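FORM 7B: Structural annotation worksheet

SECTION A. Query
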Amino acid sequence: MDLLQAMSVYVKVVEAGSMTAAALQCEMSTTMVGNHLRALEQRLGVQLLQRTTRRQRLTEFGSVYYQRCLDVLGLVADSERLAEQALDEPRGLLRITAPLTFGVERLAPALSEFSLQYPQVKMDVVLTNSRPDLLESGLDVAFRLGHFEQSNLIARPLIDYTLTVCASPAYVARRGMPITPQDLQQHDCLSFAYPAGDDWQSVEKRWRLSGPHGEILVDVSGPMLMNTSAGLHQAARTGMGIVMLPDALVEQDLRDGKLVTVIPDYQPPSRPLHLLYAPDRYRLPKLRRFVEFAMKTWGRS
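SECTION B. Predicted structure
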C-alpha cells in the first residue's frame, strides 16, 4: 500500500462526503477508493468511517486522523515546493482557470508554446465564466474579467477585453446597414444572457456604446437571448441578427469577410482583464515562468 496515496484518498472521501464523489476527484474507481480505505484501516487497526448504504460518518479516531493526514500531506507538499525552488526548474502540475471565450480563443492556442518551453510542467485548465476562489479550489493562477475584491491576491493588469458590434453580409444585404446606435432599435439584435451577479448583467438588452458625443444606451431586441458567446457567434454567421461579441471570437471572421463591423464610429465597452495569483506561490518556478509568459503575451505595453 502506498501510505501517502491512501491518506490522500481518505482526505478526499472525508471532504467529498462519499466514496463515489471522492473517486471522481481522484480519477479512480469507487472500488479502488474502498480498497485504499480498507488497507488504511487494516494498517492502523482502527475503524475510520462508519458507513451505511446512505451515509458515512467519521469515527472519533477518524476525525483526529483526518487532521493528522492534512498536516502530513501539507508537509509533503511544502517539501516538494522547496525542492522545486532549489532546482529553479519549472515542473509539476499548474492549475489555471480562465473565462470560456478567452480560454478557447486566446489561452489554449498560446499554451502550446508554453508547453514547448517548459515540458516538465503539466497543466490542468478549467474554463468557466464563474469566478472560482483560487485558494479554496486549489488553483495556481486565474485570468479574471471585470472587477474583483480579493486583496489577498496579486492582480497583474492585462490588455482590456474588447467587443465589436457586427453582423453577417447576408443580414446586412437583407435588412440594411444601421448607421447610428438608434438604428439598432429597428434591427434584430442577438443578446447575451449574463448570469446573476455579473457586473454586465444590467446591459444584456441595453447596449452601451461610446461615440463622438459621449456614451449612449440603446435598448435592443431580437429573436434570441443566449448564454453562450459561441452560440451567438454561430447565429450571427448564419445571418440571424446583429451581435456584440468579444474580439477574440470574431476577429478572424471580420478579416475573412464572414462578418462585418456595424456602426464602427461607436465603440462597445471594454472589460479589464487581470492575471491573479497568491503572492506566496509566486516563488514556485512553474508559476513564476507562467506569469512571465502571460505578461509577455497579453500584458499591457
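SECTION C. Observations
The chain has three domains: 1-83, 86-159+270-296, 162-268. Residues 60-87 form the longest helix (28 residues).

SECTION D. Sign-off
Analyst initials: ____
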